[in-house]
Structures are given as structure tokens and as C-alpha cells.
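Question: Now follow the chain.
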Amino acid sequence: MTERHDPPGESRPRAGGQNSGTKQSGSCTSLRSTVVLHTGRQARSTGRRTREHRNMRRARQLPPEFDAAVFRTGDALAAGVNSERLRRSDLERPTRGVRAPAGSDDFVSAIAIVMRDDQHFSHVTAARLWGAPLPRAVQDDRRVHVTTVGTLRMRRPGVVAHRAVSAEVRVLNGLRLSAPASAWFECAGVIDRMALVAVGDHMVGRAGLATIDDLRRAIRPGSPHAVAARRAVELVRVGCESPMETWMRIAVIEAGFPEPELNIDVHDATGAFLGRVDLAWPRLRIALEYDGEHHRERDVFQHDQRRDNGFVVNDWTVIHATAADAVRPAVLFERLRQAFVAKGAAL
């Protein structure tokens, strides 16, 4: 018996069913439809990718005043920028009605361009803009503080809103913010005493942003934070140049040592310059130095060694403190006590 084989793509007719020719015709039609459908999808997909590619090329083209800058969407639309362009992935929305280059971290500028004339940056935001040192937790907080002189506070995500009856406002690099002394007092409700003293030291320091009397005048009687501010201002000193110097100065005073002089130049008997020290008791020839991480660098370390040799031969005792001493200061205080005793000073 000869065995029958169906050609590829064909099926043998079922009993009582259609003939093979009809079945083959239907299969070919279905195949052609599948090919046409697949080809059509490819064409549409290719066209879509082409249009997206063209759109991406157009997306790079912004008017110069909006390129690589924070801007208001209303200004861009008025300048003829298409609204669809403002939704492209190369722009982000830091706050309502504002666009910025993707990856921008300048939330202050984004808020600044939507501020009203009766609003300004305040509290720790103003202090940071004035260059004041702030605790790490405050630095890492992306929120900004905005004060309104009036009743209608700013209501936006990421904004800590305040109201004031009046305010002393300055302009710095085009930004409206609390005056240095006012910003210092506003910080009293946000940071602890030691940090508040460090901010005060900065304001009255080399930058010359305020005086200690300015800080006193900025304290508003009856404010919930007035007492804390008064206690802090009594510890603020001119001449302190870093937050760790502030900490060392207050720590040694509260540990019972006399108040040191700040950042003084030391000379030998011939008048030759030996170096500048952070804290010192010149009459006793005792100095207290804070060594930050950069003191571990080879060149800095070698410079410190040469300088300390000059202090030693001129009968100066130099005590070195590090960040670890801020956590456990007992050993530092003991070494300092020993230095005072060796110099014949009574504590």
C-alpha cells in the first residue's frame, strides 16, 4: 500500500469536511494577512520611533533664556515654547509652575522665582545662604524656610512656611533673605545651643555680617525662643573661625578652664613667627589645636611637625584635639589639666 503524505502547510480533509483545495486557499489567505499585519505594525512602529527621534532632537532646543536654567512655565509658554516640550525628560518639575534641568538640585532658586514681594528666605535657609555652618541633619534637609510679612503664607511641598509682622530683609545674589542677625535669631527655634553659638560666631567673624550687639537686638522679647537666644549670644565671640573651635571653646569653659584667647599669632623671643593657634592661654604658653581630616595629609602633617618643634623649644605646650574628642572629651580635658598643672596654674 502506498503511504500518502500531506504537503507542508496542508491538512488532510476531515470526513464530511471541505476539500483540500479550499483549506489550502484559506491557509494562504491567513498567512498573507499575518504578513501584511506584521508588516503594518513594523511600519507604524518605525514611524513612531522616527517621530520620537525627531521630537527628541527638538527637545534639546530651548530659547537661550531657558537653557540650563530654572524658569517658570508661564514665561516659557509666553515665549512660544510648546507645552509638550515642557514635559520632556530633560526637564524636571521642582515645584508647581517651575521647570529645571534634569538632575538640578537647586530647590532654592526654584522657590525664589515664585516668591511674592512680601516673601523671603528665613531661618536656617537664610543662615546657610549667609555661609553659616549648620549641623549635618540640617544640611541634609532639602526643605526651605520662607517667611511672609503678612497673612498669606506660601503653601508648597518642601517649603516650611512662616509669618511675621515685620522683617529686616537683605538681597544676596538676587535672593531675598533675612538679615544676618535676624537669621541667627530665627535659627534658635530650629537648632540646639551649640549650633546656634557656632552660627553666631560666623555672623560676627571674619565675614563681618553682624556684631554681637546686632544679635542681641535681633532677639524678639516674648518669643518662645528668646531665652535660648539670650543664653547663646552670651557665648558668641569674635575670632572663632570654625564650628569645632566653637565647640572646643565652650567645652573647656564649661569644664572649668579659663576662657582662652582665639586664633592668636605666636612669636619667639626674637619676634620670629612660630605659628597661629586656634585657642591659647598665652601667659601660660598653652595652646589647644583642632586637627581636622586634612591634617592627615602628608604635606600638612610635616608642616605641623615642623611648627610644633618651634613651639616646644620655646616652652609652649600644644594639645591636639580631633573629632573623636567631641564625642568623648574626658581624655582631652585631662591632658589639658595636666598642662595647666605643669605650668603651675591653679584650676
User: Anything to note?
Assistant: The first strand starts at residue 71 and ends at 72. The first helix runs from residue 20 to 59. The radius of gyration is 36 Å.
